[in-house]
Specification:
This protein is α+β, with helices and mostly antiparallel strands. Helix content is 16%, strand content 58%. The chain has helices at 2-17, 215-235, and strands spanning 26-38, 43-46, 56-66, 69-80, 85-96, 104-116, 120-133, 135-145, 150-156, 161-172, 175-187, 197-211. The strands form two sheets. A six-stranded antiparallel sheet has the order 2-1-6-11-8-9, with no helix packed on it. Strands 3-4-5-12-7-10 form a six-stranded antiparallel sheet, with no helix packed on it. The longest helix has 21 residues, at 215-235.
């Protein structure tokens, strides 16, 4: 009996020592930006942008005052191609009561494009929200499959004053993808030039891919579990 338990323990130790499975993700580009656009100024103001192809963690806060309109935006992101973990959060907000307020738009944007050399499992969780008086506020998170020219998933705020928590999981085929997230505010010109309008939009997500276990890994795992079960029955 003790011999069975020793063998079962060895199998358990072997299972514990199995590699978790590398998640080699080839990152082709990554970028973040905060944009404030004002039609009356004839151009836009751009906040911080992450270097193309960069991995790592970064956080920024942007404060812009344009034509008496105060705009604040903050976001942070993490990209670890080696572990296949992508995360980010962004928000834009604006509140004003000035003429030509309808000519202002703010946006926080995140993009990470990558290639999977083999099929991998993915897990996603996050939230999007928008709270806007007198205009459009929108938050969104989406994964685009370039090979199929379609979206694997897309989550978007259901209304102009609402929030949505979401989660998704599944299998991604080998190929190239882009993970996109954004928060955007656009006031409604129909409210009038001197109307007060304000609100915010936001997104936050954690996306992770992991290698699918090899058949031999499954076989060893099943053998180990079977032996553990057999040893437990003998002990009873």
């Amino acid at each position: 009996m003790k011999a069975f338990l020793r063998i079962a323990a060895l199998f358990a130790a072997g299972l514990a020592s199995l590699p978790a499975g590398a998640s080699p993700v080839t990152l082709s580009d990554a970028a973040r930006s905060v944009t404030v656009w004002h039609a009356g100024s004839g151009g836009g103001i751009f906040g911080p942008n992450s270097p193309s192809g960069a991995a790592g963690s970064f956080a920024d806060t942007v404060g812009v005052s344009l034509g008496g309109i105060a705009v604040d935006a903050s976001q942070s992101s993490g990209i670890d191609a080696g572990s296949g973990i992508f995360s980010g959060k962004g928000a834009v907000s604006v509140g004003f009561s000035v003429q030509n307020a309808d000519e202002v738009m703010t946006q926080s944007y995140y993009r990470a494009s990558f290639t999977l050399p083999t099929a991998m499992n993915y897990v996603l969780r996050g939230m999007v929200g928008a709270y806007m008086d007198g205009g459009l506020g929108m938050g969104s998170v989406a994964l685009v499959d370039h090979g199929a020219a379609s979206e694997v998933f897309q989550f978007i705020t259901p209304g102009s004053w609402d929030a949505l928590s979401f989660s998704s999981s599944g299998l991604l085929a080998a190929g190239s993808y882009s993970l996109l997230a954004g928060a955007m505010i656009s006031p409604d010109h129909a409210q009038g030039l001197d109307a007060y309008m304000g609100g915010s939009a936001e997104y936050e997500f954690h996306f992770e891919v992991a290698a699918v276990p090899e058949p031999e890994t499954w076989a060893l795992m099943m053998a180990g579990l079977s032996l553990l079960g057999f040893a437990a029955r003998r002990r009873v």
